[in-house]
């Protein structure tokens, strides 16, 4: 039993340590008042998020602003003006009149007039300043109102940040007499007129019922307050949030008879000053700037509206939990946060859960606020976050210690392996050095130029390579291999290097002095240490090319002699026979049989010459193909045509290049040449793409332009001689020819021929 309990305590040690630590710390911070201001700010935010309410129709404000003071010509206004104002209001028989203007001293002229109005207006309530000012002063009520018990206190309670969040219902005067504040006095008098009065419930706790509402005085530690001055009878201000404020009329409009009919009839009227120059502005929970701050008379009216709505409309008063419940509330959220941090597998999961629960806490507090409960937010929220962070951090620390112990063991094992690997690496490095030395000795002894490249850059070369290109070794290392071939050949070299092509191909080398030479490159991809490199041997094939040129020249001479001995002889014989027949016809000699024999001889010679001509033509190749492959011939053709036109020509070659039969390359080149010429000359194209694709089984030639295009079926055999020639050439090499074109949409010609 004890062992099991001990195991459980150890398992949940983080929770048992974190909860009392965090909750206790927050309770101490709360008791000393550190969190009070943040809690009050959170309360203000809930007030601002509250839905708006319609204006209270039972209250009307008569205000004195800056324009009214200018109209009056003085401030304070004279007793005569104030008397006329009250008399004008009395004509519409308001329920009550609250005068939020001090009149402890007469302001002539018209003082006696005002005294008479005070005496004859039993529903008029005046004000006095009960709580002493900073200078220790109080302000008395008008004597006639004081004698008739029709005075009230104008005092408002301000929190440490200057906001009105608490309202006084009544307080004690210096002579220990109870006096209602102006807002409360007007509300209670209005309710008494409707037969509603205060009903005591618990005299010790000073609870009373007023209509449908139950009032309980604010204690010094209620809600977010800590040791606040709770003297007098205070309640939490739960002022309504009006859409447009109270119904208001200026004193000038009243005095000049511009007050609407029945505007104040059977209503509570409060008279007060709203002018900026008097500095009578107060911040409430709704206030966000000094411009929107309500005046003192508006704050009194808000308290009146709050009390009337609570007694008549069941609008909830703002209540709080008892202090022990608030302590349990903090401990509960500390426990929740600790459990989250202790059971979450990662800080990210902890953070997401804390955010969701924090939103739930704020949402529940706001819902309870709407139904009349002020639930503390800041300490529980801090308890949730701090407990989650602390417990998760403690868990991570425990896991880190376990991981550190495991890591130490792994480090020891890894150290032994590394020592063994170091020995093996050193042996491998020695072997590599010896292998590299043998390679350099072998490469230096060979007569062929050898270069090693990595990612297109030269990393090593032998002496023959240096002599071939004319660079020093330090100049060569780091140079791009494509810079050692002529610009026309770089594309093929770069393509072969990028594709990892292994084999031999021909190109044109470029020496340091700018001279070029024909070269043959044989490439092989291999490993060099731990790096994948490309080893290329380069041979200067200038002698071979000269021999090939000489062979071609000799072949041309041979064919020229053969043409001379065959075609020339045949044509000469034809000419002789034609001359003989012409002479005979001129002399009108010889028989028809002789003419037929001569014509037969001419026909035979012509046929022989035609056969020899066809044989000679087949043996000849286009000049572009005599010196290079089909890919290079097309590239040179595009380059030549690019220099003679403004049309943008783009040439692309894809796949590994291989040779095709001579007749196939001849016809493909002629088809490409014809298509390019047509696109430039007739289609008025601004851009032409020539694409040669080498596939494993097929070779594809595509010529595509953005010219004016044409209807393929509308081309006649006479005007479409070039297209007819392309079709005939494709048939001769058993290729597939596709021509796609529409007027205004360009033309695309595709030739596909099998590799075999």
Commentary on this structure:
The chain is α/β, with parallel strands linked by helices and 756 residues long. The chain has five domains: 124 residues; 276 residues, no CATH class; 93 residues, 2-Layer Sandwich (Beta-Lactamase); 75 residues; 131 residues, Histidine kinase-like ATPase, C-terminal domain (Heat Shock Protein 90), CATH 3.30.565.10. The chain has 22 helices and 26 strands. Strands 4-3-2-13-1-12 form a six-stranded parallel β-sheet. The chain has a five-stranded antiparallel β-sheet with strand order 18-17-21-20-19, with helices on both faces. β20 and β21 form a beta hairpin. α2 packs antiparallel against α11 and α11 packs parallel to α13. The longest helix is centred in the middle third of the chain and has 68 residues. The two termini are 89 Å apart. The model has no long low-confidence stretch (mean pLDDT 84).
Tell me, what's the shape? elongated
**How many strands, what sense, and barrel or not for the largest sheet?**
6 strands, parallel
Query: Helix tally?
Result: 22
> What is the distance, rounded to the nearest whole angstrom, between the alpha carbons of the first and last residues?
89 Å
Strand proportion: 15-25%
Helix content: 40-55%
Query: What average pLDDT do the residues reach?
Result: 84
How are the secondary structure elements laid out?
Layout (H helix, E strand, L loop, with lengths): L1 H10 L1 H19 L4 H14 L9 E6 L1 H7 L6 H12 L5 E4 L11 H9 L4 E5 L14 H5 L3 E3 L9 E2 L1 E7 L5 E3 L1 H12 L4 E5 L4 E4 L2 E3 L17 E4 L10 E4 H5 L12 E6 L9 E2 L11 H18 L5 E2 L2 H21 L3 H24 L2 E2 L3 H68 L3 E6 L2 E5 L1 H7 L3 H4 L13 H10 L3 E8 L5 E13 L2 E10 L1 H46 L4 H28 L3 H4 L3 H13 L5 E7 L7 H20 L5 E8 L3 E8 L15 H12 L3 E6 L5 E8 L2
Parallel strand pairs: 1-12, 1-13, 2-3, 2-13, 3-4, 5-14, 15-16, 22-23
Antiparallel strand pairs: 6-7, 6-11, 8-9, 9-10, 17-18, 17-21, 19-20, 20-21, 23-24, 24-26, 25-26
Helix pairs in contact: 2-11, 2-13, 5-6, 8-10, 11-13, 12-13, 17-18, 20-21, 21-22
């Amino acid at each position: 039993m004890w062992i099991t309990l001990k195991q459980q305590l150890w398992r949940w040690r983080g929770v048992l340590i974190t909860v009392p630590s965090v909750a206790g710390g927050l309770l101490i911070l709360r008791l000393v008042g550190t969190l009070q201001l943040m809690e009050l700010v959170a309360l203000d935010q809930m007030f601002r998020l509250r839905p708006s309410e319609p204006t209270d129709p039972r209250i009307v404000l008569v205000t004195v602003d800056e324009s009214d003071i200018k109209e009056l010509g003085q401030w304070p206004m004279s007793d005569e003006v104030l008397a006329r104002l009250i008399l004008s209001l009395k004509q519409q028989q308001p329920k009550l009149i609250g005068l939020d203007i001090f009149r402890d001293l007469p302001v002539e002229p018209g003082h006696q007039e005002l005294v008479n109005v005070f005496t004859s207006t039993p529903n008029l309530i005046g004000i006095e300043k009960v709580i002493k000012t900073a200078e220790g002063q109080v302000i008395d009520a008008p004597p006639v109102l004081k004698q008739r018990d029709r005075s009230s206190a104008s005092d408002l309670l301000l929190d440490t940040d200057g906001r009105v969040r608490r309202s006084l219902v009544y307080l004690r005067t210096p002579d220990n007499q109870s006096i209602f504040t102006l807002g409360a006095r007007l509300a209670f008098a209005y309710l008494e007129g409707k037969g509603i009065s205060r009903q005591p419930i618990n005299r010790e706790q000073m609870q009373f019922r007023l209509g449908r509402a139950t009032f309980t005085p604010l204690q010094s530690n209620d809600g977010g307050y800590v040791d606040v001055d709770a003297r007098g009878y205070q309640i939490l201000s739960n002022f309504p949030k009006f859409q447009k404020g109270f119904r208001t009329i200026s004193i000038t409009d009243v005095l000049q008879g511009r007050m609407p009919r029945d505007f104040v009839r059977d209503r509570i009227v409060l008279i007060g000053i709203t002018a900026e120059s008097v500095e009578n502005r107060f911040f409430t929970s709704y206030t966000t700037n000094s411009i929107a701050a309500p005046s003192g008379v508006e704050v009194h009216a808000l308290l009146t509206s709050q009390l009337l709505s609570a007694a008549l409309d069941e609008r909830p008063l703002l209540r709080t939990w008892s202090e022990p419940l608030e302590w349990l509330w903090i401990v509960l959220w500390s426990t929740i946060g600790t459990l989250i941090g202790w059971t979450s597998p990662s800080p990210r999961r902890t953070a997401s859960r804390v955010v969701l629960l924090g939103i739930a806490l704020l949402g529940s507090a706001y819902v309870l606020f709407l139904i009349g409960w002020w639930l503390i937010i800041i300490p529980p929220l801090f308890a949730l976050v701090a407990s989650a962070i602390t417990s998760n951090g403690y868990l991570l620390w425990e896991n880190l210690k376990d991981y550190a112990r495991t890591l130490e063991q792994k480090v020891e094992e890894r150290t032994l392996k590394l020592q063994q690997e170091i020995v093996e690496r050193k042996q491998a490095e020695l072997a590599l050095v010896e292998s590299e030395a043998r390679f350099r000795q072998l490469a230096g002894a060979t007569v062929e130029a050898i270069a090693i490249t990595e990612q297109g850059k030269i990393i090593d070369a032998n002496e023959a390579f240096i002599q071939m290109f004319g660079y020093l070794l330090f100049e060569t290392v780091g140079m791009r291999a494509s810079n050692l071939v002529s610009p026309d050949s770089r594309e093929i070299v770069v393509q072969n290097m990028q594709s990892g092509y292994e084999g031999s191909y021909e190109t044109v080398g470029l020496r340091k002095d700018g001279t070029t030479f024909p070269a043959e490159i044989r490439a092989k991809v291999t490993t060099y240490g731990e790096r994948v490199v490309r080893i290329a041997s380069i041979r200067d094939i200038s002698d071979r090319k000269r021999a090939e040129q000489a062979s071609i020249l000799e072949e041309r001479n041979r064919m020229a002699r053969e043409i001379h001995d065959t075609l020339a002889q045949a044509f000469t014989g034809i000419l002789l026979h034609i001359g003989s027949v012409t002479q005979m016809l001129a002399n009108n000699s010889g028989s028809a049989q002789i003419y037929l024999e001569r014509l037969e001889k001419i026909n035979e010679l012509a046929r022989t010459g035609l056969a020899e001509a066809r044989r000679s033509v087949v043996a000849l190749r286009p000049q572009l193909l005599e010196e290079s492959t089909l890919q290079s011939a097309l590239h040179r053709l595009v380059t030549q045509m690019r220099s003679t036109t403004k049309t943008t020509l783009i040439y692309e070659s894809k796949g590994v290049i291989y040779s095709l039969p001579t007749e196939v390359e001849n016809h493909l080149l002629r088809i490409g040449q014809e298509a390019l010429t047509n696109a430039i000359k007739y289609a008025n194209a601004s851009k032409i793409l020539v694409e040669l694709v080498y596939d494993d089984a097929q070779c594809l030639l595509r010529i595509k332009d953005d010219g004016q295009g044409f209807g393929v079926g509308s081309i006649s055999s006479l005007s479409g001689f070039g297209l007819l020639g392309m079709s005939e050439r494709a048939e001769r090499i058993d290729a597939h020819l596709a021509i796609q074109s529409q007027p205004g949409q360009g033309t695309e010609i595709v030739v596909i021929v099998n590799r075999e």
